[in-house]
Amino acid sequence: MVKKILVVDDEQEFIDIMRIRLTAEGYDVLEAHDGEEAIKVAEAKKPDVILLDIMMPEKDGYTALREMKHLEKTKSIPVIVVTAKTGLKDLFALEGIKDYIVKPFETDDLLLRIKMVTERKNA
Length: 123
Known about the structure:
Elements: E1 4-8, H1 12-24, E2 28-32, H2 35-45, E3 49-53, H3 61-68, E4 79-83, H4 89-94, E5 99-102, H5 107-122
Helix pairs in contact: 2-3
């Protein structure tokens, strides 16, 4: 079964790059451009993993994450935070984030993290 990845970022170029690479690896890619759209897409499509940018206009990634963790349809979806900020590991652990990666990153590193998170979810 094809795994669905929801990529949430306010930069369309980043989403497009992720779509190309993730699709090449056999994933179905969904997209959202802010936190509010991320919640709606996650509820409707139930992705296997969410790649979530924190710094976005409108509703940011932290706010969206907190809301998704309280919604029945989205609370069990693993989230990998994609951020330009460093030194946030402890905060992420408190928020229930499964993993994080700091921009810029190697796509192979992200693919490995996605694989690890989905394997943990299915174990």
